[in-house]
Specification:
The protein contains two helices and ten strands. With 140 residues, it is mostly beta strands. The longest helix has 7 residues.
Amino acid sequence: MNLSVRNQLTGTVSEITRGAVMSTVSITLAGGQELTAAVTLDAVEDLKLAVGGEVAVLIKSTEVSLATGSVAGLSIRNQLRGTVASIDAGGAMAVAHLELDNGGQLTAAITLDAVKDLGLVAGAQVTALVKSTEVALAAA
């Protein structure tokens, strides 16, 4: 199946915390970084998620925010460190292509003003921020 979601990573389920309706799924990405997905309990059961199982992690590029410098005091669970590989800029928006620390790629669709304000250029160190509710999972 082809998808419009640009960010498609793989990882291993390291923990599942089940709730009455929603669950959190902790995933170790191939490069070793940790990620959390908040999904319905039905999704956990339908996908047959289990600790040690492999999953595909899907994140829309429009749901990725970028920060430079240290990040603290946020409720955003997913903070993936990486380096800007390149930036494709348009009239109002840009796509930042990131190389994650320890491997993997991620894209972030952000405004051109944000690129300028943050001083983003190839080689810049960034932290990609993604809310756990914006992470989708698929059976690998």
